[in-house]
Amino acid sequence: ETIAAIATAPGAGGIGVLRVSGAQASAIATTLLGRAPQPRHAHYCAFCDAGAALIDRGILLHFPQPNSFTGEDVVELQTHGSPVVLDLLLRRVCELGARPARAGEFSERAFLNGKLDLAQAEAIADLIASQSEAAARAALRSLDGAFSQRVRQLLAGLVDLRVYIEAAIDFPEEEIDFLAAPELRARLDGVSDELSALLAETRRGVRLADGLHVVIVGRPNAGKSSLLNALAAQDRAIVTPVAGTTRDVLRENIQLDGVQLTLVDTAGLRESADIVEREGMRRARGELERADVALLVSDAEHLDADLALLGPTQSGQTRLLVCNKIDLAQTPPQRSEQAAGIRIDLSARTGAGLDLLRRELKSLAGIGDGSTGAFSARTRHVLALERVAAHLAAAEFALLDQQAGELAAEELRHAQRDLGELTGEFSSDDLLGAIFSSFCIGK
Ligand code: GDP
Fold first, then answer.
1. Which ligand 1 atom is the nearest neighbour of the CA of 229?
2. Nearest Cα to 47, choosing from 29, 37, 32?
């Protein structure tokens, strides 16, 4: 089937692009041009409807398979960026044998024809959706295969391990010796270390793509609003307040050096009998549960007592403990790591120590030192890698504590399958459908 779709958001006086892909694409191009187009050559073309009336003049490009985005014959038609023109041209192309493409269908075909793996295809959508320079660069790195390559490396390590263990199982009289060998332990450790590193970078990649979600909590008068304003002012941030009462949750979005920070001031998380206030608290707790970073504003005197405001620890969440008002106590700004979280002593009023907090937030958001190689990723990838980690841990237990080679091999097979889901080697149609249908039409 040949598909066609408008591939630009028309309007604003720009150019319009109509993309056609499939077996009929070349024939359609020949009809429109009045002769066979040359490959990868810009033809100036009068696009006409069935009655030979002119629709628009523009450029026709032909990319013969397999050297095209989808791997099929592709034709791109460039017109003036008018939705009416593009619509007429789409209708004409469909009369000539194409049908309108579904959302993400071009990328899906590129994936099915081996032009991109699944993680790369997802990176296209992430690049289009990127809201900051850091996010765009990271998505581009994923599109170039930086993430996929790491996944394949890990896959190779897993397969090696499986082959080794399965070979041991095949020689039962030596199996125990084989499985107890330090060599095996070293390989297992190697694969687990690689997986932990990849998981950490993937989590960072998700934050880069999605932005960091920070929730601020603290007693009334701790200095939450002052801190928010100080951060926003120092960074010439774009602040978008969302309506709310003092009892409601107040949100502000701050674009900090290209990272999206959503600061949520939960307006006093104290125990209360007041129904409205309790509702506010329930919502505040909900915000806290979803946060990447839970930021407590307190001071040196009240810190221990205020820790309760952070609620139960969420997995994968970082806790920042801001000790505000150091100007009153006349203590220096500093950063220290404590059991309850990372503590930063600062003054929202004088600005002392704010740079420590900003640096911490940026590093949590994935930008800052050593971020040049960062790639973008999705929650789906993190979840799959977490499943891989669980299978690997089970394999390790089976091997080292139970000397059960068969069980270990089985766990490694599961790990391999889950890892293959990332790049699309083992993906169900449901998963593919869910991923590509979230793309825009024409991509
Ligand atoms: P919130 O209720 O937590 O939002 O607290 P506010 O930001 O409204 O601050 C409460 C009071 O503390 C205000 O009078 C602020 O001026 C003051 N305050 C906030 N931060 C500092 C600080 O670093 N040093 C001093 N001396 N006062 C501060």
1. 7
2. 32
